[in-house]
Specification:
alpha+beta; 2 domains; nine-stranded antiparallel β-sheet; five-stranded antiparallel β-sheet; 3 helices; 14 strands; signal
């Protein structure tokens, strides 16, 4: 009888552990943000011994921990490193060096968006943002386009989304005469802009939430009306559309 109770106890314990494991595995995917890193000198020395590129002069770090307690570091020189916890401290798993570009005139730059995007429970991606700016008489625009890269175990990156709208803000002059200034009610520009929020729904499925706003000056001759709009798009990461299905006027890419 005691033996049977013992066996029954083991079965119950195994069932509980199995449920806990399943619950942990099924935990919702979350986008994680790199934040300013705070390490002791001992911890920095340990990490630098394993990834010397992180520790060049004037290099700054941001860090985060994934649900499996792995440590990720993003450096100001675009190195990304992944470390796993061990009894002796963090051990380097792999490292990526991300190449970005910047023009001398500052009209086109690239940067790594400081977040880690989950594809599955164990696979992650980053976004590289192309940043453009343009100026014109009495106005201008700032435009951002995003490409997403999976960080592969080999230390390489695989691009699976290319040149998606990420954000923009634009001002177009609407006042050209004294009469325009009088009728503008203090608003002498047409202004519009786009923003994007991303939400992981399940492994290999993200929801892109685009938000657009248009604010038209009373002095404008554009025949447009102010409005706000939004569109939610579920993106299957196994077969990504070349471009998202949003209205053409939401997808401003700059003057040709």
């Amino acid at each position: 009888m005691i033996k049977n109770k013992t066996i029954f106890g083991y079965i119950m314990l195994a069932g509980i552990l199995g449920c806990l494991a399943t619950s942990a595995f099924a935990a919702p995917l979350q986008i994680l943000e790199f934040k300013k890193a705070q390490f002791s000198q001992t911890e920095q020395d340990q990490l630098c011994k394993q990834a010397k590129d992180l520790c060049q002069q004037d290099v700054q770090w941001r860090s985060l921990k994934t649900p499996d307690q792995n440590l990720w570091i993003l450096s100001s020189r675009n190195d990304i490193a992944q470390f796993k916890p061990t009894a002796l401290g963090f051990k380097l798993v792999r490292k990526w060096n991300i190449v970005t570009v910047a023009t001398e005139d500052g009209h086109h730059n690239q940067y790594i968006f400081p977040k880690l995007f989950p594809l599955t429970q164990q696979r992650y991606a980053i976004a590289i943002i192309d940043q453009f700016s343009e100026m014109y008489s009495g106005g201008g625009a700032n435009i951002e386009r995003a490409s997403f890269y999976e960080l592969k175990d080999s230390g390489d990156e695989h691009r699976f989304i290319e040149n998606y709208p990420f954000s923009f803000s634009r001002m177009i002059r609407a006042c050209f005469s004294e009469q325009d200034y009088e009728s503008s009610k203090g608003k002498c520009h047409d202004e519009d802009g786009l923003s994007l929020d991303i939400r992981p729904l399940k492994p290999m499925l993200w929801q892109f939430r685009y938000h657009y706003r248009l604010d038209v000056s009373p002095a404008s001759d554009s025949n447009e009306k102010s409005y706000q709009g939004s569109r939610n798009l579920n993106i299957d990461l196994n077969k990504v559309p070349k471009q998202p299905n949003i209205p053409v006027n939401w997808d401003y890419t700059g003057q040709e």
